[in-house]
Structure prediction request, 382 residues.
Amino acid sequence: MTRTTGRYAISTTLGEPVQAFVPHSLPPRRPVLAADSYAQLNTAAELALARLAGVSGLVPSVDWLLYSAIRKEALLTSQIEGTQASLADLFDDEAGLAVSNADDVEEVTNYLRAFRLVQDNLRNPQGLPLSVRLICDAHRLLMNGVRGSGKQPGELRRSQNWIGGTRPGNAAFVPPPPEHVATLLGDLERFVHDPAPLLPPLVRVALVHAQFETIHPFLDGNGRMGRLLIAALLEHWSLLAQPLVYVSGYLKQHQAEYYRRLSAIRTDGDWEGWVRFFLEGVEAAALEAERGIVDIASLITSDRRRLLASPKAGLASYRLFELLPMMPRFSIDRVRQALDTTFPTANAAVAALQDLGIVTELTGQKKNRTYGYQSYIERLAR
Prediction:
């Protein structure tokens, strides 16, 4: 039995009538989602997330795991949309250092702000629930001052948009007409807050992301907002207590398949194919994050051991080392401020780490020097 996942409505834009797709509300029906198509993959993905949570509990500080994981997700989700920034660029910007692609870096930092807003609200008993209003507030932060900032940030679109092609008539996909957007998002919000859901939470995350992308409620930034929803729902539905997994890495690596699977929902009613792809992606991303944590933890443990064995190292250098995972690029002045100490003490602390090869001077200059925990950055960037 072929499943229909929506209907077409005529929408006129740029003077030409087009067939715009209006999706049915979730969950998929007639037929319902086949449990045997996802059950095994869902179990594997849930186990991978549980293992990731367990491994994260073995490291001294979850904070530095979160610092890197959230930034990797922000970077990778932005790269799917064509942003060229790197992790090193992001660390340089946070260190107050000059970056050549400031606009791209700002897009990534905007994603971080938008994600924090959603996370803070969901963790606060007085905060907004996951809702259209919260999504709009996050979108306003996401688009603030960057490409697309003139396209009604924080507001549901009031005009027809399209994906691919030079105009709606030759587009790869035309989302619902603007007058349907608020109703469709309201239906999606009700699905998220269904008190008696029939599907496993990871499957529901997959459905919500695909539905959001089909609705395409904003004039720009829909992909990043849809992927932000993945991260938010993993925590909201207690699949992962902290956002340690960066699913956007898998989606970027398999970008053509990602778009093809979303398209097949609309054209062929193939929800099962999308859900399988998504669950495989979550499992792969969790395993990758787990490997990354083990790799980074072993590096930091090894470097800490060398530091503690060094007769030249003192208290300031120990304190600086513990800051490095959340301050991988820095100047002497930033160290002075972070340690709340004098310039000579900060300089001596950096010198002790440099002598051990833990940090590297990056400029080759005598003044205004910049340092980096390069082995750490290189591992994160793999």
The mean pLDDT is 93. Residues 271-309 form the longest helix (39 residues).
